[in-house]
């Protein structure tokens, strides 16, 4: 793990992102010249290397000074090193880099339908979902996002919070959706036998919201069903967050667990 600022290294980051998101050379997620300008301005760009091969990269830029925050824009890891904690190492490096510069919070967005990303962000890193952003980026011309609306959840990673410190030391924030349900949580969204979304109840103090097992595969095999999930999660999860519900955690079996705000 190390910061990157040389033009050749930043060009390698561009190629890495093109490969991960399968955009092609005419529509890269970011250009080397932009990354070069960002590093010169003091923003964050890092790379993860395996025997000299760039296998992951992350970059971010600062929020307004009063926020003392960094917005992490893109982080990606090659498929053949997934499962080796490369993404986790990138975030630990980013956290350490930010804290040395007086930054107390890092924000980023992720697709709420992608189960592994929800677990990584909410459980493994202990970041807190703050906003649901409908079609945030608009149409995106890459093989991962091309057929779907770009709904995102914005998370805030409070770098010195006790749960974040524990997560970075290897103690993820665990959540048991089954136990929550046994304790009276209502199921606001689940999957039917055919794999589509089924709306339920969201009237209990604690609410659980399901997502599909592999939405990326579903987009390819059944785009209509994937679109149904997008609309359902936007309405249910987005609605709960907008009403002030707090996402307590994400069960890796595919459930958001939320606590609704008390009302008089």
Automatic annotation (TrEMBL):
Coiled-coil residues: none
UniProt xrefs under SUPFAM superfamilies: Acyl-CoA N-acyltransferases (Nat)
PANTHER family: GCN5-RELATED N-ACETYLTRANSFERASE (PTHR41700), N-ACETYLTRANSFERASE DOMAIN-CONTAINING PROTEIN (PTHR41700:SF1)
Name assigned to this protein: GNAT family N-acetyltransferase
Organism for this UniProt entry: Actinomadura nitritigenes
């Amino acid at each position: 793990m190390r910061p990157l600022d040389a033009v050749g290294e930043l060009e390698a980051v561009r190629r890495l992102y093109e490969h991960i998101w399968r955009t092609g050379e005419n529509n890269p997620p970011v250009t080397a010249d932009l990354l070069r300008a960002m590093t010169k301005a003091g923003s964050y760009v890092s790379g993860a290397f395996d025997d000299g091969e760039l296998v992951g990269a992350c970059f971010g830029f600062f929020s307004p000074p009063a926020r003392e925050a960094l917005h992490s824009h893109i982080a990606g890891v090659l498929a053949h090193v997934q499962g080796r904690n490369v993404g986790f190492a990138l975030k630990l490096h980013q956290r350490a880099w930010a804290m040395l510069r007086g930054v107390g919070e890092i924000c980023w967005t992720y697709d709420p339908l992608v189960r592994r990303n929800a677990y990584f962000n909410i459980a493994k890193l202990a970041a807190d979902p703050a906003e649901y952003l409908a079609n945030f980026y608009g149409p995106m011309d890459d093989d991962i996002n091309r057929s779907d609306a770009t709904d995102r959840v914005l998370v805030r990673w409070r770098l010195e919070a006790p749960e974040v410190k524990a997560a970075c030391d290897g103690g993820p924030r665990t959540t048991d959706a089954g136990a929550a349900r046994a304790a009276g949580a209502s199921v606001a969204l689940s999957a039917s036998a055919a794999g589509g979304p089924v709306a339920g109840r969201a009237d209990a103090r604690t609410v659980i919201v399901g997502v599909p097992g592999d939405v990326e595969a579903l987009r390819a095999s059944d785009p209509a069903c994937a679109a149904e999930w997008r609309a359902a999660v936007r309405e249910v999860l987005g609605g709960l967050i907008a009403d002030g519900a707090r996402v307590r955690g994400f069960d890796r079996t595919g459930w958001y667990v939320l606590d609704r705000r008390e009302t008089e």
